[in-house]
Amino acid sequence: MPANKPLRFLVTNDDGIDSPGLAALEAALPDSAESIVVAPAEEQSGCSHQVTTAQGFRAMRCGEGRFAVNASPADCIRIAVHSFRTSFDWVLAGINHGANLGADIYYSGTVAAAREAALHGIPAIALSHYRNRVLSPQDWRRATSWARRLIPRLIDRPLNQGEYWNVNLPSLAPGPADPEMVDCEVDTSPLPLVFAVDGDCYHYAGRYHRRGRQGGRDVEICFGGKIAVSLLTLP
After folding, report:
1. How many CA atoms lie within 13 A of 3 on its CB side?
2. How far apart are CA 167 and CA 148, in angstroms?
3. 110 lies in a domain?
4. Is residue 22 a contact partner of residue 50, using CB atoms and an 8 Å limit?
5. 103-to-18, 189, 192, 218 alpha-carbon distances in Å
6. Considering the domain boundaries, does residue 1 fall inside one?
């Protein structure tokens, strides 16, 4: 596209249109960018690549270039591509309130939005922010700073058809230093199978920060305080 033509972004998430992570991502967009936000009206965390086909859903305008959809993140991409603009240069999904590392990519609505974009031939980045409540509280201003730095770098790296990025920001103690960006593969270790059992009712009780990890892969990289950047590909 011409160098003087602004990039057009479709922005979504799975935490809902009013989430602080979405606001942090919008604040990280390049200054010259054009954007439209099409995001779930309410939280849809863990919905994976669910789409709505057996019933209708509403896309409600809630501001200039902003639409709240009472459906999944993948539905948001589908309706945006169908109805709101003929083309987008990039889809950005996030910033998710919590990491989407390793096996999480199969459960995450945030990653599913990027995957749905890739299905339609649109380059996409899913961004998530690991939460370590012991180490530090969520710092969305700092997350915006990191995302603002890395988004142009990824945009400058050409993607092949069916490829998309999955980015996980680390949880760091307060400080001025920016974390290193590391290209890494996805960790295939399963999440811990720990359940509290009350009669015939099972409550998941696995501790996220104690999950298995393989050396040099996304879980270890992010837990080690660096930005994990993984290239994902459609099957």
Report:
1. 0
2. 13
3. yes
4. no
5. 27, 7, 11, 10
6. no
Q: What is the pLDDT of residue 14?
A: 96
Q: How many CB atoms lie within 10 A of CB 115?
A: 26
- Per the structure, the complete domain to which residue 119 belongs is given by 8-233
- The number of folded domains in the chain is 1
The single residue listed with the structure tokens 């309410």 is 42
Whole-model pTM: value is: 0.95
Residue 2 has pLDDT above 60, yes or no: no
- What is the sign of the dihedral through the CA atoms of 137, 98, 157 and 120? negative
> What is the average pLDDT score of the chain?
94
> How far from each other are the two terminal CA atoms of the chain, in whole angstroms?
28
Lowest mean pLDDT among 47-51, 68-72, 131-135: 131-135
DSSP labels, 138-176: --HHHHHHHHHHHHHHHHTS---TTEEEEEEEPP--S-S
The residue behind tokens 């999480």 is 104
Quote the CA–CA distance of 162 and 96 in Å, as a whole number: 22
pLDDT at 1: 46
What pLDDT digit, counting tens, does each position of 53-75 carry? 999 999 999 999 999 999 999 99
- Say if CB 92 and CB 72 are below 8 A apart: no
Take residue 212 and report the two structure tokens written for it: 């298995």
Residue 2 lies in a domain: no
Q: At what angle do helices 20-27 and 140-155 cross, to 10 degrees?
A: 50
* Residue listed under structure tokens 């749905």: 116
pLDDT tens per residue across span 91-105: 999 999 999 999 999
